[in-house]
Design goal:
This protein is an alpha+beta fold. About 35% of the residues lie in helices and about 25% in strands. The chain has two domains: about 160 residues, Fructose-1,6-Bisphosphatase, Chain A, domain 1; about 110 residues, D-Maltodextrin-Binding Protein, domain 2. The protein contains eight helices and 15 strands. A hairpin with a 4-residue loop joins strand 7 and strand 8. Helix 2 packs antiparallel against helix 3, helix 5 packs across helix 8 and helix 6 packs parallel to helix 7. It is globular and about 55 Å long. The N and C termini lie far apart (about 65 Å). Bound molecules: D-MYO-inositol-1-phosphate (IPD) and calcium ion. The site of calcium ion has 5 residues, from strand 5 and helix 7.
């Protein structure tokens, strides 16, 4: 590998690409929103929608990555799936928080992560080495690369450091099927009486960034897909959070992702799973 190719593959360089493409797609998404929303399809249930802007955002990002990094793989929520040869696969959520986009609520984001294969790190077998999450409604761009810390609009961010569950503001999210929602209600029933309060903003990628910036103390969700968490998870990790999956042999991901200060995250997981011995209110 030449020096310039090595530099092009550095996590910092990959984060730079993620920032640029997320901001460019975000500005297009915002532009399209001003002209109105066009719902084009539904996915896991009738309320799990895809808008024209989701597709346009993913198309723009994939096209740019294919031009700039033709050897990389690309994997996106709206169907992109290209195998690469470089070992890097880009995981894209073109609009995380599509329901907020539909209702013009300011919590949605474009998430782009450069990932490598790693069975032990996350349930989908990949781990991000660089990422960006851009909220075009607030103008916030979060980014991180492995070992390089996490930033919001270029300034270093850290988690809140809250270690007491009872004092914690905890984010979570819900899926789109009745079965999934019923499981999530049980989790919330166990957690809510034990914490300061709960927040459900509607974008997992953005939630993980809010945790990274200390605006949430903790976050958990069951049912996340790789595109929902790939970008935000690295940003939370680099800001000092620890991420846990359902148990010691299941890494964070679809079965469960819990994220918080290392001194808090185990207790949170126990409460989420009802493994702390406390009885659930009737
Ligand atoms: C959803 C959001 C939401 C989370 C769901 C995701 P989408 O993604 O991240 O916060 O609770 O699990 O599916 O559908 O808005 O891209
Ligand atoms: Ca999503």
């Amino acid at each position: 590998m030449t020096t310039s190719t090595a530099a092009a593959h550095s996590p910092e360089a990959l984060a730079g690409i993620a920032i640029r493409l997320a901001e460019r797609a975000g500005s297009r998404v915002l532009d399209l929103r001003r002209r109105g929303v066009e719902v084009q399809a539904s996915k896991s249930s009738a309320i799990d929608i895809v808008t024209a802007a989701d597709r346009e955002s993913e198309r723009m990002i994939v096209e740019a990555l294919r031009a700039e990094r033709p050897d990389d793989g690309v994997f996106g929520e709206e169907g992109a799936g290209i195998a690469g040869t470089s070992g890097i696969t880009w995981v894209i959520d073109p609009i995380d928080g599509t329901a907020n986009y539909l209702y013009d609520l300011p919590a949605y984001a474009v998430s782009i992560a450069a990932t490598v294969a790693d069975d032990a790190a996350f349930a989908d077998g990949r781990r991000a080495v660089a990422s960006a999450v851009h909220n075009p409604r607030t103008g916030e761009t979060f980014d991180a690369w492995e070992g390089g810390g996490a930033r919001l609009n270029g300034r270093t961010i850290r988690i809140s450091g809250q270690a007491e569950l009872a004092a914690s503001l905890v984010g979570t999210g819900f899926g789109y099927t009745v079965e999934r929602k019923l499981e999530q209600i049980e989790m919330v029933t166990r957690v809510l009486p034990r914490i300061r309060d709960i927040r459900r903003f509607g974008s997992a990628a953005y939630d993980l960034c809010l945790l990274a910036a200390g605006r949430l103390d903790a976050y958990f969700e069951r049912g996340l897909q790789p595109w929902d968490y790939a970008g935000g998870a690295l940003i939370a990790l680099e800001a000092g959070a620890e991420l846990l999956g359902r148990d010691a042999s299941t890494p964070p991901g679809e079965p469960l992702l819990c994220a918080a200060d290392p001194a808090l995250v185990r207790e949170l997981r126990d409460v989420v799973l009802g493994a702390d011995g406390a009885s659930t209110p009737a």
